[in-house]
Amino acid sequence: MKPIKFKGENLTIGEGQKEYKQLPAFVDPSQPIVPFSSCWIMEEEEKEEFLKTGKIWVTQLTFGNRYAPMQLNVSKPKGIGKFADPKAMKAKMEQAEKNMKAKIKAEKAIPKFEESEQVAELMKKASSILKDIEPGTKDDVVNELMEKLEKNVGIEEDIKIIK
Q1: Per-position DSSP letters for 50-100, written without gaps between them
Q2: CB-side neighbour CA atoms (13 Å) of 27
């Protein structure tokens, strides 16, 4: 089977990653369960096998993470291409993009400071403090901390403030 483009897709997973095939998908993060749908087409041999057995096998690559619930369909799921809440969807997509950029930035900074007990202590205390910070401000605080970590500047003052 191979994934195919379809009307209503809004995301291409694996785009720009040579080691993966591209997967056209529809994602609606405005819904609490964040549904994800893709469309696949069978090769002729697969159609013949399916007609004989009536079975479809699913393999989910987890990379060591938890298993996600799945649902298989033979017809297009309702709601593809329509968002439950378009404004919330846009806001969540923007937040997801910010989070991804912050994660990439953090991953680049972490190897430089793996051995530093001060940084580990700072991050531990900062994460507990960040829980109480307003959502809009949290990104600014995290970005500022990450910039300081990358430059190894001002960490001592932050540790004193957090303590």
Answers
A1: HHHH---------TTSPPPP----SSPPTTTT--S-HHHHHHHHHHHHHHH
A2: 13
Q: Which residue has the higher pLDDT, 18 or 84?
A: 18
Three-state secondary structure call for residue 4: strand
Q: Which of the pair, 5 or 86, is modelled with greater confidence?
A: 5
C-alpha to C-alpha distance for 28 and 88, rounded to whole angstroms:
9
User: What is the 3 state secondary structure string of 117-130?
Assistant: HHHHHHHHHHHHHH
Which letter does DSSP use for residue 122 in this model?
Answer: H
CA 159 to chain centre: 30
Distance CA 20, CA 12 (A): 11
Structure tokens at 50: 């399916």
Kindly report, residue by residue over 78-134, the tens digit of the pLDDT. 878 776 666 666 677 777 777 777 777 776 666 555 556 666 666 666 666 665 555
CA gap 110, 59 in Å, rounded: 33
What whole-number distance in Å separates Cα of residue 120 and Cα of residue 110?
10
3-state secondary structure of 16: coil
